[in-house]
Structure of Vacuolar iron transporter:
Amino acid sequence: MSSDEDKITRISIEPEKQSLLDHHTEKHFTAGEIVRDIIIGVSDGLTVPFALAAGLSGANASSSIVLTAGIAEVAAGAISMGLGGYLAAKSEEDHYAREMKREQEEIVAVPETEAAEVAEILAQYGIEPHEYSPVVNALRKNPQAWLDFMMRFELGLEKPDPKRALQSAFTIAIAYVLGGFIPLLPYMLIPRAIDAVVASVVITLFALFIFGYAKGHFTGSKPLRSAFETAFIGAIASAAAFCLAKVVQH
């Protein structure tokens, strides 16, 4: 909420109720979109280069080749994932703008129908006609508030942050790079890939476990279960790539 909107909200609230709000802080987690982007970037960044490195190690490639291919994959993957996040956020923004324009036109063209929809929405919350009628009339006198109400409660759409697309792109890309370099670290230090892959497996599975635990904590699911699930998926991906490389090689 902007400072202007906050000021308007404060003016319309009774002083005693405003006092209660000022002394009450709700502890809700509100950074869901950023966490989602980090989860997408880190999970793919840990898993995809990990599987690629394991596959190349299974094909008896040298550590330098694995490292070169891994870095190339991390760079390409970060760009691709970041672009995907940008396009997804822009699509959401465009969809909101189209629906808002359509709803705005309906409020002008068929105000009685739209007012009836407001009444229907409020009735779903158990509000009686004599209780919601003043609310409907108040919204009709404030077209912008009416439009915001319909967008949120009829269509279930929240206004996207205009900075969301770029923020999503950079968050996913950076998270992918940070996650992607973890399974490649052993190949920078150990010349033989077949030896480096063992260290890579240990380090990456540990990182996946920690990441899965943090993901579970922030998303509200069971942290330990999330940790084991994330590590298990990474282990399956790397084992499949390693075994496939061995099969193809023979």
